[in-house]
Known about the structure:
Residues 13-123 form the HIT domain. Its EC number is 2.1.1.-. 25% of the residues lie in helices and 17% in strands. It is α+β, with helices and mostly antiparallel strands. The protein has a five-stranded antiparallel β-sheet with strand order 1-2-3-5-4, covered by helices on one side.
Amino acid sequence: xxxxxxxxxxxxxxxxxxxxxxxxxxxxxxxxxxxxxxxxxxxxxxxxxxxxxxxxxxxxxxxxxxxxxxxxxxxxxxxxxxxxxxxxxxxxxxxxxxxxxxxxxxxxxxxxxxxxxxxxxxxxxxxxxxxxxxxxxxxxxxxxxxxxxx
Length: 150
């Protein structure tokens, strides 16, 4: 698949939103992406950015699609931030797979405005550094590098 061959899944809620079968609060749209307010509004302005072709997750992107979709995210993020002078930061989140909290299996990026450290949004990263030594890090490093294509 390339970025220039859009495809749709008739059972996908985001594909239905792209086609206009389900209404959305669209804030940005062009030939490659659609950005609209997340119905849950984790914080005010919580926006989803989706490619206008059905890809289930980050693992299904090719370089062309990634380049075209990712290039639009900063512009949309800046617009969300500029919309409210109380926004002091933003989480950009992409979940891949059910275990990673992906609930709609059409790739999407959450732009979650941050108003303070008490704005009811949390991400917890446990520090497991004490469980690793140089050998462990090197083993992980080499295993990942072995699967990178030139």
